[in-house]
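Hi R.,

As promised on Friday, here is the backbone we talked about, encoded as structure tokens. Could you run it through your design pipeline when you get a chance and send me back a sequence?
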């Protein structure tokens, strides 16, 4: 799969080339003047529906609920159920087609998982703390324990995040991150680390092999994405959105 940017109504979407082969829909959204507190469900649904209707490929169902957790850089993962609130949660597992989940990002790494056998998916939020805590591996493990997911079947999408080029951390943080994988030789350069690849390596070392990595660096591509670092702690966020179809 290849990520690409598509404009829709002056908004930029990150899409995948062959999502039509899957029975789900995944997008990364960027909205110009948009943040988590201002999102309107009707706007969101309208944009998505407009895009897919234009392509004439799928009829996007109107989601009954949009679920967004309160992200705190934890490694806590929940399965979406009838609850409406998910405090201190940085990973959500979705098993139904009535709900849409979205998580917010600005430099941190979006991890999107799909198990095409059991037809369930998940989104996790991996900044350096989540990555150090291996939230991606823990998400896959929870899918395995709760739903019998085989890691070999999982399709993983690693979304736009701050890149090796721009992400300098302390030696302590670097060493903590690199200690989470067996082979870390190509994952850092001096005090710069590659969060996307560290997450990918963790997953590969735990049996997840179908992984696509979005090439964009949120700091270098600040015209496309929000960057917490580049924009001096901006409150704006882009989103990883998942709905099963
Ligand atoms: Zn960069």
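Update: got your reply. Pasting your designed sequence below so it's all in one thread:
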């Amino acid at each position: 799969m290849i990520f690409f940017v598509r404009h829709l109504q002056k908004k930029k979407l990150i899409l995948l080339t062959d999502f039509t082969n899957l029975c789900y829909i995944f997008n990364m959204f960027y909205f110009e003047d948009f943040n988590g507190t201002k999102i309107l469900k009707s706007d969101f649904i309208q944009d998505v529906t407009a895009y897919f209707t234009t392509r004439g490929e799928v009829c996007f169902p109107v989601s009954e609920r949009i679920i967004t957790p309160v992200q705190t850089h934890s490694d806590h993962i929940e399965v979406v159920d009838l609850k409406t609130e998910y405090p201190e949660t940085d990973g959500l597992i979705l098993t139904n087609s009535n709900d849409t989940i979205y998580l917010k990002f600005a430099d941190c790494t979006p991890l999107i998982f799909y198990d095409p056998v059991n037809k369930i998916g998940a989104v996790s939020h991996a900044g350096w703390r989540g990555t150090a805590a291996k939230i991606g591996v823990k998400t896959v493990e929870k899918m395995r324990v709760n739903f019998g997911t085989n890691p070999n079947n999982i399709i993983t999408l690693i979304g736009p995040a701050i890149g090796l080029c721009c992400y300098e951390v302390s030696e302590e943080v670097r060493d903590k991150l690199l200690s989470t994988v067996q082979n870390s030789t190509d994952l850092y350069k001096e005090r710069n680390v590659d969060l996307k690849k560290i997450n990918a390596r963790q997953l590969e070392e735990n049996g997840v092999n179908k992984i696509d990595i979005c090439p964009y660096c949120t700091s270098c591509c600040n015209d496309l994405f929000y960057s917490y670092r580049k924009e001096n702690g901006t409150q704006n966020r882009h989103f990883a959105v998942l709905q099963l179809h």
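One thing I noticed while checking it: The first strand starts at residue 3 and ends at 8.

Thanks again,
M.
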